[in-house]
Amino acid sequence: MVAQQDDIDDLIQGPSVVEPEEQPILAPIVPGISYESIHNLCQRPLQALDAGHITTIRRTATIRPGTRMIKLLSARQLGAYLHGRRPAGFCYREFDLAAMRSPAVLSLLLGDAMTAEQAPVVFGLRWRAVDPSDYHIPFSLEVGRLPSYSGLTSISPYDRLGPPVLGTGFAPSHSHLVPEFITADFADLPMPAGTSLVAFTPDGAEVSLYLYIPEQRAWTRMFGPQHKHLLGTIPEISTEQEYVQSTGEHVGGSVLLGRYQNETYEAMADPPGGFRVLSRARAARYSVEAVVRRTRYVTWRDAPCTVVRVEGDWVRLRLCRPDRESASGVGTQCVERGVYESWVPTAEIGAVRDVDQPYPVPAGSS
User: Fold this and answer.
1) What predicted TM-score, i.e. pTM, was given to this entire model?
2) pLDDT in tens, 252-298
3) Cis before 272 (ω within 30)
4) Which residues of the chain have pLDDT under 70?
5) Domain identity same for 179 and 33
6) Are residues 123 and 216 in the same domain?
7) 101, 102, 119: which is closest to 110 by C-alpha?
8) Count of the separate structural domains present in the chain
9) Which residues contact 193 (CB under 8 A, 6 or more apart)?
């Protein structure tokens, strides 16, 4: 096996920390307010008249270190994550999807062009949030210090995948009230320890498929022979092997950097337990004294972008604020709901800048 058994055992057992208690959505009790009326307001484009009420309700769904997050995936997207893609784009708190277990219901939240009939099995990427600063609410208006993603609501159906973005911070749904999040600026997030890939089957069961081992940069297989059929039709995926991400040759995306004894090392997050040096050797996995998430930004054709990948003289860019013009007029491709990318010659991009987002390091973390 590629992944060492000790690393797998550590992740399965998990850290000895208290599970965070998630905050349900809260709404003020006033005359004339019912679940139906709130749901109706959240299922139409956000208007200034309703903004104060809706955004107040939406902001009660919060993320804290250790919150279980999930991103629903089609079969095509599952393959991309096994081959090196990182958490990015639209995602949800697992807490808010507890009552939604069947593919028929979950497929409505897919960021791909799949329908319930085309997706008899829905896959998911599950991880624990490292810090609330990694996530934005896709409001179409500026709310306090929260940025506006109004451009998402203006994109034509011909230039997007998945359901429309309403701008209320809630996902389109006929009966459920599901708060949605996006990774800040649609940037990649480094893969935390304990990240897994799962499948939701038509009978409502959940099957663990792969577990990510950060020290090995590997997805180790967790399913048995009885579940091979779940992956048997996915192109370029073998049910007999594990998957290791390449390093060095291709660079890009966000990276976690930690300080230990005045030296900087690539780090890994093990939320909510803390951060440590990313090392294959167990003896060198020191707890770091300070840590940041470093993301590379550039400007391309007047549009702010993050760098996803670099290969030779070409760079893969992702739009930070997609809108109607950038989605259709600058040569980007919609790879999933809200995520627009393009390969660009390095000579065409503007100045490169690295932005560090510091994280608090828990006292006594190990």
Assistant:
1) 0.91
2) 679 999 999 999 999 999 998 799 999 999 899 999 999 999 999 99
3) yes
4) 1-20, 29, 48-49, 113-119, 246-252, 364-366
5) yes
6) yes
7) 119
8) 3
9) 11, 212, 214, 268, 269, 270
